[in-house]
Write a structure and sequence with these properties.
The protein has 114 residues and is mainly beta. It has no helices and eight strands. It has a five-stranded antiparallel β-sheet, with no helix packed on it. The protein is globular.
């Protein structure tokens, strides 16, 4: 797991602007998530109801609004608006939305070709 600020990414002339952080030249899936106050993502939605959420590729989150905590492999750290979070393959990860300022995030995955 790695967290950087979005204003440190710089410009890209081709490909996607997250290439310095997210392996792969094309973004192939992603979305937008509105966190409910106090909500923890992916709780008990793993295999057979386990509390385990992993991918076999990298995932990147951009915190667009709000604050909360990132839980990776059962360790928590604070996250806030403007953070860019890189989750490595195999890392169990969850976002916990703040009660007063819920998280709004964009997320994506990248690979070498479409």
């Amino acid at each position: 797991m790695k967290i950087v600020r979005i204003n440190t990414l710089g410009e890209m002339s081709n490909g996607h602007f997250l290439q310095k952080l997210l392996p792969g030249t094309v973004i192939y899936k992603g979305g937008f998530s509105l966190g409910l106050p106090g909500k923890r993502t992916h709780s008990f939605d793993g295999p057979e109801g386990s509390d385990w959420h992993v991918h076999d590729d990298y995932e990147l989150f951009i915190v667009l609004q709000g604050c909360g905590e990132l839980e990776v492999n059962q360790k928590r750290c604070p996250v806030r608006c403007g953070d860019v979070i890189i989750i490595e393959p195999g890392e169990d990860h969850h976002l916990i939305s703040d009660m007063q300022e819920p998280l709004i995030v964009s997320y994506c995955h990248a690979r070498s070709q479409l």
